[in-house]
Amino acid sequence: MSKKINLFANLKSDFASGLVVFLVALPLCLGIAMASGAPLFSGIISGIIGGIVVGYLSTSHISVSGPAAGLTAIVLTAITDLGAFDIFLTAVFIAGLVQLILGFVKAGSISNYFPTNVIEGMLAGIGIIIILKQLPHAFGYDNDFEGDQAFSQMDGSNTFSTLFSIFDYIQIGSIVITLVSMVILISWDKVPFLKKLKLVPGALIAVALGVILNEIFIASGSALAIGKEHLVSLPVPSSFEEFKAIIVTPNFSGVMNPKVWVVALTIAIVASIETLLSIEAADRMDVQKRYTDTNKELKAQGIGNMVSSLLGGLPLTSVIVRSSANSNSGAKSKMSTIIHGSLLLVSVLAIPVILNKIPLATLAAILILVGYKLAKPATFKHFWEKGKYQFVPFIATLLAVVFLDLLKGVTLGIIISIIFVLKGNLKRAYFFRKEQYADGDVIHIDLAQEVSFLNKAAIKQTLNHLPENSKVIIDAKDTVYIAHDILDLINEFKTTRALDNNIKVKLKGFKKAYHLENSIDTQNHVTIEHYYDAAKRVMVKKEVTDEEFLKQENRN
Questions:
Q1: I want to staple 127 with a disulfide (CB 3.0 to 4.6 A). Which of 84, 375, 432, 515 is the partner?
Q2: For the stretch 69-87, what's the b/e string if a residue is b when 16 or more beta carbons lie within 10 angstroms of its beta carbon?
Q3: Based on the structure, what is the number of domains in the chain?
Q4: Per-residue confidence at 111, pLDDT binned at 50, 70, 90?
Q5: pLDDT tens track for 118-137
Q6: Same structural domain for residues 394 and 465?
């Protein structure tokens, strides 16, 4: 009973969001299927399963699942190599099974290690891709399939060269409908009396008006009329037999084919990573800041892929574009994604002819605004103000996502973030000042609460550059953890180099828990309870003369 209450508690806003996502998802499902070399209806089936099945099983409130542009190259190659679409569906079923297992072994936990700046860079990159890819559709140049995210295209052109080609294919009717749609979408949230009509999303009004305008253009014989090639193109079965023929089921005889297992594992890994990235991004877009159980998400995706394959659908993942549209439309719960899947199912069965009158220019207007919200200037400013250690991984991820692909972009961003973390640990994160005293230098080295092997290089460099005849106090009174590498390094310094260079060393606060040789003070036992800021692992500073230390040394 509580499940129903949760699902229907925000039906008003969730229905409006689900409707917008449905309008966005329809051409994307068809476009991705076309690019994958699969039957067009397989993309719709994947969208329906992603919406209803995964939407119900998932714990994510914002994320939307369906066929993913990131899998198009894998799917296209796999169908060609396996020789038949029904054999490929067997690989999708196995991939779903692998994802289900990954969920049970809690592999979803790796999403906790995706840096925030990398996730935000990925979102901004996707936003820029959406804008760049939808601009041609807004001008009436519909050469590329909907959902295309690749910079380099199969026809030898790229995203930028396609933009320049717009001027050779400009269609005034598409531009008019794009501008009208933009005005409606922007004003819907700005004009006071329109806000009261929140149940009816601006996107639906824009789509309806786009269809009406084009029908008027056609009826009047105007040169502004948009042709069939610039409209949504959904398969329309003329009989029940034709509809049955659309549904393809897996050929499980392919289970014994090693290539099927290679394809299955590839899809499982790529789809799982893309899902975890999208879930992390969706959680960040959630205004209520709710968190998704990523292990349950992998299970939901696995079951979704198994069901999709049994009905002849493409592999699915959680997808950012539809999730972004869902969030921007005011979705409150996962009911919105279930509604979008239900609308896909009902519409393709009941009103495919009407759907095929929707201009791609209207959908381009919707997606361009989604892209802007993902890559708005405020996001760039935010990370710029946070400094280079936050901005560089952010901008590197963004550029790599735009010019390479999502997975390569995120991988690059994570690598750069790791390098910065290592640099922060390896650099000399301390102060060193020389001051002369009558009896030589007294240098204080205060160890931080946690000293790991990453600090070894910095500490070693410091100890090697200590001046001869100086006096050194290495203080570990605030330290709760020291790596054995560091303990060995300090012990070797005290017993060898310090003696050779007449450096007097005093060790303070080293605990019994460190198990060092007798030369180190073992006064108090301590347990490891917490960690210290990575940028302040070791602090070295020269202070006023330690009178107690000097007196002790004079006595010696």
A1: 375
A2: bbbbebbeebbeebeebbb
A3: 2
A4: confident
A5: 989 999 999 999 899 899 99
A6: no
